[in-house]
Structure formats: C-alpha cells, structure tokens
Amino acid sequence: MSRKVRMKKEDEQPVRSHIQSIRNPNLYPKLKNGELDGDLNHRIQAGWMKWKSASGVLCDRCMPLKLKGKFYRTTIRPAMLYGTECWAVKYQHVHKMGVAEMRMLRWMCGHTRKDKIRNEDIRGKVGVAEIEGNMRENRLRWFGHVQRRPTYAPIRRCDYETEVQGRRGRGRPRKTLEETLRKDLGYLDLTKDMTQDRAQWCSKIHIADPTQ
Fold first, then answer.
1. DSSP per residue over 96-129, as a string?
2. 33 vs 39: CA distance, rounded Å
3. Contacts of 168 (CB under 8 A, 6+ apart)
4. pTM for this structure?
5. Cβ–Cβ under 8 Å, residues 54 and 75
6. What is the model's pLDDT at position 43?
7. d(Cα 169, Cα 94) in Å, to the nearest integer?
8. Which residues, at least 6 apart from 27, have a Cβ–Cβ distance to it below 8 Å?
9. Which residue from 97, 110, 128, 185 lies 20 to 30 Å from 88 (Cα-Cα)?
10. Per-residue pLDDT for 27 more than 70?
C-alpha cells in the first residue's frame, strides 16, 4: 500500500511543479506583460549558442566569406527566427534582433565597429539580407499557409480578424498580429487573394540575399 502511495506522489509531482512554474510570472515575461521581450531574448540567446558552437568555422580566416554567409543562413538564422512568424513585432524588437545579427556578421568578417565599415558593406561581403526582411517573409509565408487551408481546418478557428468583446483599458491598444500583417501586405503591395497561388505568393514575398 505504501508503495502505491509513493508512486502516486511521484506521478503527481511533475504536474504540481509544472502548474507552479506557470503561475510564476517571472519565468514567463510574455504572460506577465503581454510583450515579446522574453521570447526575443530567448531567440537571441539561442542564436548565440549556435554561433558559438560553430565559431571554429565562422571565425576561420581561411574560409571564404560567402561560404560563411551561407553557413550562417542555413544554421544560425533559423535558430534566431524560430517561431517569429506569429510575433506582433515592434521597431525595438526588430532593432534588437538586427543589432545581435550585425555583431555576429562583423565577428565573422574579422571587423569591429572601430573599423567604421557600413552595415550594408558587411552584408554584401557575406551575402546576408537584413533580418527584418526575413522576419516579414516568415510572417507572410505562414499567413499564406493559413489562408490556403479550408475554412473547417482547426488552424482557421483562430482567425486573425477575431474581435474580442468587452472594453479595453486606457491608452493605445497593444499591437496585434493582424496590424503587423496589414503593414506587411501594404509594404509589398499584396492582397489576401494572392495567397491562393502558392508559387506566385512565394516569389513575391521572397527576400533575395545581397551579392557583391
């Protein structure tokens, strides 16, 4: 009997600790203030961990810069942009992500800010586009995937244009994903009807990497 009770307590312990961790707002900043600061810092940290694990290749002076850029685009950047297709990003979020990326790219080229080399020149050497464009491409790619799904699909139940009933607090409302997607569509002069043609949609939202 005591063995059964012990096993029951052991089975319930992870559930109790899991519930307690969710109720702690300090561990989940996004649940605490509704912002993306916690997720943003986690993605930047994940990108630096990947970068440091591959620093032997990225910091090798014998390695061509174009090859370093291709390696960065295929291994480091996906770790930084994982899950960003559902972010209602603000300017400070994009700026912080871009600053972290430029530090990596300058380190790869063996330069510092004291060398006074423009960011465009660094990106041209390694062949890496701005991270803001890639974040926009990821959002629009996911948006097109959702729009092409049938209306009875589970993913369409959470529509971007869902209206929340009730009164909101004072001040400017928080930025939503719908507002972000509206700006993305206007920036590239796109409409929702274009999402049905997958090939055309992918060609219009694709961000080409710079060449030099």
1. HHHHHHHHHHHHHHT--GGG---HHHHHHHHT--
2. 12
3. none
4. 0.74
5. yes
6. 93
7. 26
8. 21
9. 128
10. no
